[in-house]
């Protein structure tokens, strides 16, 4: 079985571990978000791709959910001694090695997809990890700033989230998206999938950024495989992160049902909401033309996460069977 997943960082990576446990024999392709990428100290940093790589490769700091386990910060201390900022973003030494390899390869002319493949070889990744695009697409967030002309200012997503701690957002802009193309293998992985999964990743700045790359949303919507998603919103709020702020910025209510309707029935065939908090959302989602089930959606343990992934695959199988039986006999 071929499974293709569109993943952000921590939420996506943790879910993917459950998916691999639920379907150990599947070929899994992960289409990763590059909207959080940035250049710092001359180094190209891809936070979401690295979170997936470190998590599935066994190098992640489990408690944090991002960055390397047993990390040291010698370089960061030296930069501080030189008075070189920014002081709100700290890179660990082991992590810097990843960015050095990436930056060197990009400088030599390799596309990000080839660089990502090379980095993942070292980690013997149990999935194929593809950046959604080889072009630069960077998420910027428009925030209020009384001192800026017009009273508003756009900041890079990392500055919005890490330095500013996610104040109210007015708009989300994908800088460079118009000129971006899906990376090699992305459209094929969507077209050839038996199941397409949207993990409980951020629907705006993770999955949304991937879908907005020209060609990807149309490919997912037109795929023969059932598309099943899991709600990152539980009980009217994100489990972690700033999805509430970025959903508000794009005019979407912070509920499990509203996120399903935001993806829409053209894209989404099935949706899972949390059984404890959101069972009442099932009827609303189904009324919108999306099959919906309520199951436990908290990734509180490896087993709970595996069961979530199993539920997504079961719903996909159910949808595929009903599509099959709906076809006129010929
Ligand atoms: P990021 O790039 O590190 O922000 O990670 P993602 O975009 O992949 O995932 C972030 C989303 O994961 C947030 O909106 C969270 O609400 C969601 N999330 C995190 N943990 C859980 C969980 O245990 N259950 C569910 N349903 N969602 C979760
Ligand atoms: Ca992210």
TrEMBL record:
<dbReference type="GO" id="GO:0000287">
    <property type="term" value="F:magnesium ion binding"/>
</dbReference>
<dbReference type="GO" id="GO:0043743">
    <property type="term" value="F:LPPG:FO 2-phospho-L-lactate transferase activity"/>
</dbReference>
<dbReference type="Pfam" id="PF01933">
    <property type="entry name" value="CofD"/>
</dbReference>
<protein>
    <submittedName>
        <fullName>LPPG domain protein containing protein</fullName>
    </submittedName>
</protein>
<keyword id="KW-0460">Magnesium</keyword>
<keyword id="KW-0808">Transferase</keyword>
<dbReference type="InterPro" id="IPR002882">
    <property type="entry name" value="CofD"/>
</dbReference>
<dbReference type="InterPro" id="IPR038136">
    <property type="entry name" value="CofD-like_dom_sf"/>
</dbReference>
<dbReference type="InterPro" id="IPR010115">
    <property type="entry name" value="FbiA/CofD"/>
</dbReference>
